[in-house]
Specification:
- This is Membrane protein.
- Keywords: Membrane, Transmembrane, Transmembrane helix.
- The protein has 536 residues and is α+β, with helices and mostly antiparallel strands.
- Helix content is 26%, strand content 24%.
- Helix 5 crosses helix 7 and helix 7 packs antiparallel against helix 8.
- The longest helix has 35 residues.
- 41% of the residues are buried.
Length: 536
């Protein structure tokens, strides 16, 4: 498989194809860990667990607890198993205590039976299946998961968003089942996860860390979703994986900022799963699971449309569906075809003419109402400082949006992203104030941040709050002082869209939509904000 998988939804029947084309079975001594150097006694062909398990290939290393992940053969039952080998000196009380707690948590989690996690067959400790001289603090024995390493699946390129959501859903469901019982699975390391031939992500090397929490599982799900969408790992660095890029505030850049075709909801869910609840993060696995289920429903709807289109391939050359009736003669077919083409041409000309009239009325008439619900507001400094404002170019998606507030509490901070989610049914709204600005505060706004500095030409604000006065300001950081920002556009919003032409195309990574006057009732609402970069 070479090149990028086409952007868009991948039908369910292709999920297995996407996975199995990257399926890898390593020969003895060659694993996903890339022949990592481990303890001298952990080599292919050696036996552990008092001689019961013969090591075949190493598939990873969790350095946090010195856990080596191996495929092995059970010499008694003659079947392959997955081993998590906790390496360490039994005389080290700290390491031995941590390993003992990890084994206890694994035994508790072993009661969970779900396709998203391998069945734990046995848990061994020193003196209980492990000889004192083996150099091991513990062994977790699980069913071997056939398929492909997660790291290999995204080695060439990220997956389409719909495929990523479908792959992750079973693992998220396993986490949800465990959390209902108060148990932690421990899925925050990519090499512990494998992809089965039927297209499921599975925790193949169980073993939650001693200090792992339920939130760590949610964070792990978000990290895996981020990895599937971008090919980059957003948590602590993992062997063989590039780390996710960071924004100036130290947070990971949203997947949509790297690949604009990623749906906003999936991109936001990945980032919010990595943050704590205090800053608007996703707190439970059920919240992420709902996002994945909606993504799957959208994919199924796309497949239904594709299926209808595929059915038309059974049509005859004249466009009629297959029938047992006597076919019309060729002259009749040609006459019908000519009539159809003529009608189509007339309709096309009509549509083009209508579009032309709309464009003329939009750009050529400054009279009230000529442009429909869209109002164009020029920048305050254009007339004197910059007679030729920047020419609008391509739209650009904000990497993140948050409420900017200089006094009091932020207004609806968890709803800020609704102003850039592309959904006109959602919006961000200010609080309802008893007195107009600046009686209680000088204003309130939304700070949009971008993956890199961008020269802007225009901002488009969709709002039902007539009379709201907004300023567009550049900012040197995500949380600057108001006096550090610079006004490059100003307008009074009208119902519908207001296009603000900016008087500066100086690149900036942060753009502030600052409300200085509220609408009637001392409350304002913003449905959508669009950003157009300056044409190069």
């Amino acid at each position: 498989m070479t090149g990028r998988i086409p952007v868009g939804s991948v039908p369910k029947r292709q999920v297995e194809r996407v996975v199995t084309t990257r399926r890898t079975e390593y020969p003895v001594g060659e694993g996903a860990a890339g022949n990592q150097a481990g303890p001298g006694f952990l080599v292919p062909g050696s036996a552990v667990g008092d001689g019961r398990y013969r090591l075949l290939a190493e598939f990873g290393l969790d350095e946090r607890v010195n856990a080596h992940l191996w495929r092995a053969q059970d010499n008694q039952l003659r079947r392959d198993v997955g081993l998590t080998l906790l390496v360490g000196d039994p005389a080290n009380a700290t390491a031995a205590g941590a390993a003992r707690k990890m084994l206890e948590r694994t035994m508790h989690a072993a009661r969970i039976t779900h396709p998203g996690t391998s069945r734990v067959l046995d848990v061994l400790g020193p003196g209980n299946g492990i000889a004192p001289n083996e150099g091991l603090l513990g062994i977790v024995v699980a069913d071997w998961s056939q398929g492909t390493d997660l790291v290999d699946v995204i080695a060439e390129h990220p997956l389409p968003p719909s495929t990523a959501a479908r792959l992750l859903e079973p693992l998220a469901a396993a986490v949800e089942l465990a959390h209902h019982s108060g148990m932690v699975l421990g899925i925050d390391h990519p090499q512990r996860i494998r992809v089965t031939p039927d297209g499921l992500l599975r925790l193949s090397f169980p073993g939650p860390l001693p200090e792992a929490t339920l939130q760590d599982d949610v964070r792990g799900l978000g990290a895996i979703l981020y990895l599937l969408l971008t090919g980059k790992w957003p948590l602590r660095s993992a062997p063989g994986l590039p780390h996710a890029p960071l924004a100036p505030d130290g947070q990971v850049v949203p997947p949509r900022a790297l690949f604009p075709y990623i749906p906003y909801e999936l991109s936001s869910a990945a980032v919010r799963s990595l943050t704590d609840d205090a800053t608007g993060g996703i707190r439970t696995s059920s919240g992420l699971l709902r996002v994945l289920e909606r993504a799957k429903l959208n994919e199924d709807a796309t497949q239904s449309i594709s299926a209808i289109q595929d059915d038309t391939e059974d049509e005859d050359d004249d466009g009629a569906l297959w029938t047992t009736k006597r076919p019309h003669n060729d002259r009749s077919k040609r006459r019908k075809l000519a009539i159809g083409v003529t009608a189509l041409a007339v309709a096309t000309v009509g549509v083009l003419a209508w579009l032309g009239m709309q464009l003329i009325s939009f750009f050529g008439d400054d009279s009230p109402g000529a442009g429909g619900p869209t109002v164009v507001a020029t920048a305050p400094g254009n007339a004197e400082n910059n007679p030729k404002p920047p020419t609008p170019g391509q739209p650009i998606q904000a990497a993140g949006v948050q409420v900017y507030n200089v006094k009091g509490t932020p207004d609806s901070p968890r709803r800020a992203n609704r102003a850039v989610d592309g959904d006109p049914a959602t919006s961000w709204k200010t609080d309802k104030y008893q007195q107009p600005f600046p009686a209680l505060k000088p204003g309130v706004g939304l700070m949009a941040s971008f993956a890199e500095p961008v020269p802007f030409a225009e901002v488009v604000i969709d709002s039902p709050s007539s009379g709201t006065v907004v300023e567009i300001r550049t900012a040197p950081s995500e949380k600057p002082g108001l006096d550090e920002t610079k006004v490059i556009g100003r307008a009074t919003l009208q119902p519908g869209q207001t296009r603000l032409q900016l008087d500066s195309a100086e690149p900036t990574q942060h753009l502030l939509i600052w409300i200085t006057t509220l609408a009637d009732g001392n409350v304002s609402e913003i449905t959508e904000v669009g950003f157009l970069r300056a044409a190069q």
